[in-house]
Amino acid sequence: xxxxxxxxxxxxxRSTGLIFVEILICFxxxxxxxxxxxxxxxxxxxxxxxxSENVWVTYIGGADFYRADDEEMAVMRQQVAALIRDVRSLxxxxxxxxxxxVPYSNSAWISSTRIDGRSVSVSATQxxxxxxxxxxxxLLTGRWVEDTDAALSYTPVVITRxxxxxxxxxxxxxxxxxxxxxxxxxxxxxxxxxxxxxxxGVTDDYRHFGELGDTPYVTFSGVDLQNGDxxxxxxxxxxxxxxxxxxxxxxxxxxxxxxxxxxYDTQLLDQSRHRHIMGxxxxxxxxxxxxxxxxxxxxxGLVGVLWQxxxxxxxxxxxxxALGASSRSVRYQILGELWALxxxxxxxGTVVMIQLPLFGASFGASWSVIAGGLTLAxxxxxxxxxxxxxxxxxLATRVKPATALQYE
Amino acid sequence: MSTNLESxxxxxxxxxxxxxxxxxAAVEKIYRTDKVETVAxxxxxxxxxxxxxxxxxxxxxxxxxxxxxxxxxxDTPSGGxxxxxxxxxxxxxxxxxxxxxxxxxxxxxxxxxxxNDLDALDNVQIPLLYRNLPNSVRTQMAEIALERxxxxxxxxxxxxxxxxxxxxxVAIARAIVGTPRLLLADEPTGNLxxxxxxxxxxxxxxxxxxxxxxxxxxxxxxxxxxxxxxIVRLFDxxxxx
Lengths: 408, 241
Ligand SMILES: Nc1ncnc2c1ncn2[C@@H]1O[C@H](COP(=O)(O)OP(=O)(O)O)[C@@H](O)[C@H]1O
Ligand SMILES: [Mg+2]
Prior knowledge:
The structure holds 2 protein chains of 2 kinds.
Chain A (H helix, E strand, L loop, with lengths): L1 H10 L1 H33 L9 E7 L8 H19 L4 E6 L11 E6 L2 E10 L3 H5 L3 E4 L12 E6 H8 L11 E2 L5 E2 L8 E7 L13 E6 L11 E6 L7 H12 L4 E6 H43 L2 H9 L4 H29 L11 H32 L2 H5 L3
Parallel strand pairs in A: 4-10, 6-9
Antiparallel strand pairs in A: 1-11, 1-12, 2-11, 3-4, 5-9, 6-10, 7-8
Chain B lengths: L1 H6 L14 E11 L4 E12 L4 E5 L6 H8 L7 E6 L2 E2 L5 H11 E4 L11 H10 L5 H14 L15 H13 L5 E5 L7 H18 L2 E5 L3 H5 L3 E6 L2 E3 L1
The site of magnesium ion has 3 residues of chain B, from helix 2.
């Protein structure tokens, strides 16, 4: 029977080819769309690496740290320290720190390193040690940034789990220096006077772009409030649970008392989260609608082709029953043909899909996302083909063979 | 019937049981469409002993094909009973009907009904696909059937590469390949010239004589009908005597 089916499918190359192409297109579209779905669902569900509840974030405006000369800088460092001190002394405040790359901000301090010969971005995050407590960042091994770090001959850095894994593989990263590369991307020994960064701890992944963003590589190092030139402009404040919105006024007033000529743009971290998500969800919804349309289009195409190919064979199916096939075996024959075609299309489609990352055309999709998309698409396409093939077959075998034969 | 089915070995080429005995009692067939109701068969009563060669005649539209479809289990009557070898056909389910069509009945259609995408040998093998037979046995049986109808040299030809007479002979080979005990032929010579019609008639006669098979043939050709043992005439769905 298998032989017979293959002969039939082969001798009907043209209509077989049409069905095959339809299934393949449908499969590829499903792979892409479901893969994207898997990607975003995975992002949404994986932990952010920080907590946003009961955290306020204040953007300090007008400080202009970057254009200050040494004298002005010395003054401003003291002003920032005074701000932190006074805010910390407020009764509702549990912890205060300043940091670059605060969650949900649309800008980030980025440096780069090389992994597997590829240049990758790293969020270089300077912060005061207290930010760990404010955001609930979890230290996995080693130690966290400390106030005394600036006194050391090297820069202690804490790196996220993903960076530790990709940079140092299975070795323990603790005590290792961050690699340095020359302009051509070759590994370089640190020269005289270079400040080396040495890994002292590893935290969980820190997704400061939020739940709709990627998982970036992140390094944490201390802000030098004694002598440093890089002073973050954002303050993170953890308040006691149950603190009301009236806190904002007290906070801003406190800060204005310390440095009256700076501005203090203040909001709850959960508010910036909400705004950030709202800003990104629009394009996502549009993409989802386009994807849904695409699926409906190719789906209808496949329904049409399958429907036509089966109904056109009503006479043949009637003949087979007249010659002794039961309705059941006719159904299995049609399904067998369609499943064989689907299997070929799925194999070819899978080969195409797993080539994408090799050519760097995966749009940042990871292997697990591609595997997820392939698995879901395979299940959907088999289910879809089975349903679309079975229904017209059922219609064709429901009538008496004599009636079916008249269709020819 | 069912006992017969089980005892008839799949590979046997001779029919131990001879032809199927057929009995029709008060058979009616009414086609109902949205507006019209066509009485295609009305009170048909027919007793055909096993091994008889019988022909059915009648003007176009008189119900001949309908009668043959009912006999071949391709359609169910609206009333009355059909009995094959003493078993009531109405009692059979789809799977059992399929088995009877497959093993006991060979059907030759007026318009051949060959599958154009398969060559003669593959077309002839179709009934054997629904029996549990190894590929080599199927091929061998199909070759024997094609040789029997004189197409030994055309086995790998596709239907479109064959003449009408040759196509009808492929259809006959397909009808006899499973060694049925009841052969039904709906105007098997209707689309053929008289020389080819004569060849087809000879095959049917031979098959009836050698294997003792019951043959029921619809024909418009009075001379061919007269060569059979009995002529049943239909007019407007009724038997006329
Ligand atoms: N599927 C059908 N639906 C409705 N009427 C039908 C159908 N098949 C046959 N008929 C009608 O039944 C009558 C008998 O048809 P048929 O058995 O084909 O006649 P014959 O073979 O003697 O020419 C005709 O009037 C025909 O129009
Ligand atoms: Mg007719």
